[in-house]
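Database export, one record per block. Field names are fixed; values are copied verbatim from the stored entry.
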Amino acid sequence: EGKSVVWISDPCHGNTFQTGEGFKTRNFDAIRAELRAFFDVHDMMGSHPGGVHLEMTGEDVTECTGGISGVDEGTLKERYITACDPRLNGSQALELAFLIAQRMKLRETVQASEGKIMP
């Protein structure tokens, strides 16, 4: 009691797997689904989603599959340059950023219509 909590989603780390060719990767759709679930739970509970941690780079890497960048298991090797964990590329990261912004805007609109925040 008396503690402040910040709820943060880290959808990359729980969604790592190894391909048949031995590449450690992550699937964009699984990351997106986990983020959607994160926001859905907070919407249902009336709590605030405090943050998101992503493994990402602005570089045009091919380390995570899926998303609008079109990376698949066959193209991972083209620009797989990570020294550790696979990162979302710039396109994938922006796609998630827009999803997050859209969900936050939706929350604001719903809360304003319920009189919980000022529009």
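Remark 1: The longest strand covers residues 49-52.
Remark 2: The chain has two helices and four strands.
End of record.
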